[in-house]
Amino acid sequence: MTESPAARPRNPRGQGDRLREELLSATERLLEQVGSEDALSLRAVAREAGVAAPSIYRHFADKTELVWATMQVSYERLVEDMAAAGALVPEGDPVARLRARLRAYCTYAVDHPAKYRLLYETRQSPVGPERLAQHPAGLLVRGLHDALAACEEAGWRVRGSREEAPYVLWSAVHGRVMLWQVLPAAKNPERLHRFVDEILELLLER
């Protein structure tokens, strides 16, 4: 018989945010193990965080909300890194700013492989269109949309469907990152940066 984990001390009044962060950290650790929202149980999350399962409902309406909130931490970190990289480039060169953002995306994937996998390898339960619109991946898509809009304002034309262009960039760079990670080749991040240059040349024109 295994020993049950020690009960977690109750947070003092006003420290609900601390419990929320602990639940997110516990969920992240478990998702890295089970890889699926369906395989994740709220009881396991509560046990990992050292709280009673009903405590979770004080912060999250259901398991999907908990999983999305956990993923949002990584999406926010990724988007912040991309925005910071773009901000280092002068505003007068929006293509160079977009290039810097996409290279930062690659760097994040290389530097944080476990958190990056969490974003793309966590199988999630289907939801309706209205709820799907609130998915944390929207942070990334909107950032790419705005960066492309800045390129258009500077006189560049986006080839193909403008609506799909952010997804073309996202899926192309993500696919290249995944190939880079799994293929038994020398791990030179510069190959990812060169791919970013290639995809921008294909997507943008004067």
UniProtKB/TrEMBL annotation:
In terms of InterPro entries, this protein maps to: Homeodomain-like_sf, HTH-type_TetR-like_transc_reg, HTH_TetR, MT1864/Rv1816-like_C, Tet_transcr_reg_TetR-rel_C_sf
| Positions of the DNA-binding region | 41-60
Q: Hey, what's the signal peptide range on this chain?
A: none
Protein keywords = DNA-binding, Transcription, Transcription regulation
Domain of life per record: Bacteria
Domain HTH tetR-type: from-to ranges: 17-78
Q: State the PANTHER family in the record.
A: HTH-TYPE TRANSCRIPTIONAL REGULATOR RUTR, TETR-FAMILY REGULATORY PROTEIN
Q: What is this protein called?
A: TetR/AcrR family transcriptional regulator
